[in-house]
Task: structure prediction
Amino acid sequence: MSLCEGCTAPCCRHVIVNIGNLTADQRRWAEMHGEVDRAGNWRLEARCQHLRVDNKCGIYKARPQVCRDYEAGGAMCLAARAKEKGSSDVL
Result:
């Protein structure tokens, strides 16, 4: 069974960007437009247009490199799944 089997695809429904190098004012703006965790990761809702209703990729063989590099079961994956379940360290 694939790690993605039965997953709700949070990795394809939001974007996480580290904003640790922003000024205090820029960080404040980011916090008003998405969630920022203690590590400085900014989470924005941004559903992929190729995500199918079954939560599978509609362009899997031609998906972008950033998707290919995303490690199923890795730290970002587990953090996204935890966020979906309501447990996170969001400020």
User: Anything to note?
Assistant: Helices lie at 24-32, 65-69, 75-84. Residues 75-84 form the longest helix (10 residues).
